[in-house]
Amino acid sequence: MPQYCATIYSRDADWTSPDEAATTGEYQEFSGAAAAILRGGAALYPTATATTVRVQGGKGGDVVTTDGPYAETKEVLTGFYLLECADLDEAVAWAARIPGAWDGAVEVRPVIEFGG
Fold it and tell me: Is residue 115 in a domain?
């Protein structure tokens, strides 16, 4: 059965904070409801903890790191789910139930399955 990555873009927050307990509870409810099709996922720490890596000059070039996210935006990558669904329509239906879709966006993309 095909797998889909549901990438969550919402407000930048520390999901481990007690202030976010209601929201993390909604994510836990979703995870329970989606248990039959859920194959993985993770929440991410705030963008203040991010390190962006670039290699100048391509492969073998100089590695340059920058503290912070790749881009400064209102909605940031906050987590993802790996869903195993019959088709895109089913994956979209599940993605609409992810709390991040209610105040941000969830991008659904098929996962490439390489052979071997």
Answer: no
